[in-house]
Specification:
By secondary structure, the protein is of the alpha/beta class. Helix content is 36%, strand content 17%. α9 packs parallel to α10. Bound molecules: 2-acetamido-2-deoxy-beta-D-glucopyranose (2 copies).
């Protein structure tokens, strides 16, 4: 019995340390910076950027079970989304999960969480987010922290005020403050291998000069706080368009990581950051696809 549980602990600790930063890039591949071996990221998108500012599903299953399901399906990574305000505005991220659920009148969700993950209710949103990152690391899953939106909400539309620098909720300085905070806060977490600067840039304000300006600044802010994470960058038009980088690569001096295309000179990894469809089978539009380059 003792031997069995020791074996279990040994296996668990092996699993816990299976993946850790730093990753790097070599031409179009993501590699392990220590060994040079290729690392294939197979991530699940796990939304935590909506109004409740909490990873979805914690009202339905215990956190450990959800993460175990991700492991069982052979994913090795989670793209865990976050909203800027959760980290930059005290009246968002620093209040308790329970308070927010009350203010949104989400009674059922609150009941579900008190049944499945009672420890979450009295946590602040930031603590609850950290608990999710912690459990992912404990079960050997790599984490990409994805800045998905500014104001917690469903994402995305051209007119939601979260689409591009200068939009109603998308103040570039606040965005950088959020990136800086997140890069710093998770820098000791070895499972956090990447930070994505912003999901699906879009909308009437989008333009190339501002893209180069703010994406460069954002990448620098992240790497200043945590030089070990990969930085994912979104293209324009809902992340469907990175063509402008062929004419004018992003001029960042980041250990030769600032390369963007999978072929030609200076190739770079290109990630399909989201695909899938509405599982309620009510969606009749095109399939959602978006892609991000990595520096
Ligand atoms: C990279 O290799 C090191 C040394 O073998 C290992 O500890 C680390 O977990 C690896 N990281 C990934 C993401 O494979
Ligand atoms: C949360 O805090 C309240 C007030 O301090 C307490 O009554 C409640 O039992 C706590 N709930 C949990 C799940 O710890």
């Amino acid at each position: 019995m003792l031997e069995k549980s020791l074996q279990a602990i040994f296996l668990l600790s092996l699993v816990s340390f299976t993946y850790s930063f730093p990753l790097s890039t070599n031409k179009r591949w993501i590699i392990n910076a220590s060994t040079g071996q290729r690392v294939k990221l197979a991530c699940v998108n796990w939304p935590a950027h909506l109004q409740p500012m909490l990873a979805e599903g914690l009202d339905k299953k215990p956190l450990g079970e959800i993460v175990a399901a991700v492991v069982k399906m052979h994913f090795n990574c989670v793209r865990l989304t976050w909203s800027t305000f959760m980290f930059t505005r005290p009246n968002y991220g620093h209040i308790s999960v329970s308070q927010t659920l009350d203010s949104l009148d989400l009674k059922e969700a609150k009941q579900g969480i008190s049944k499945n993950n009672p420890f979450i209710l009295n946590m602040t949103h930031i603590q609850a987010y950290e608990a999710v990152v912690g459990e992912l690391g404990a079960q050997g899953i790599m984490v990409l922290l994805d800045n998905h939106i500014s104001k917690p909400d469903w994402c995305c539309s051209n007119t939601d005020g979260n689409g591009f620098f200068g939009d109603r909720y998308f103040d570039p300085n606040e965005w950088m403050k959020g990136l800086s905070f997140v890069a710093d806060r998770f820098k000791e977490k070895r499972q956090v291998v990447a930070i994505s600067l912003r999901n699906e840039l879009r909308g009437p304000r989008q333009n190339e000069p501002d893209w180069y300006k703010y994406i460069s600044e954002g990448a620098r802010v992240v790497h200043k706080r945590n030089p070990h994470v990969l930085v994912f960058v979104s293209g324009l038009n809902f992340d469907l368009d990175l063509r402008f980088l062929q004419k004018s690569p992003l001029a960042l001096d980041l250990d030769n990581k600032a390369v963007f295309l999978t072929t030609r000179k200076n190739p770079a990894p290109l990630v399909l950051s989201e695909f899938g469809f509405d599982q309620r089978e009510t969606w009749t539009g095109p399939y959602g696809l978006s892609k991000e380059a990595i520096i």
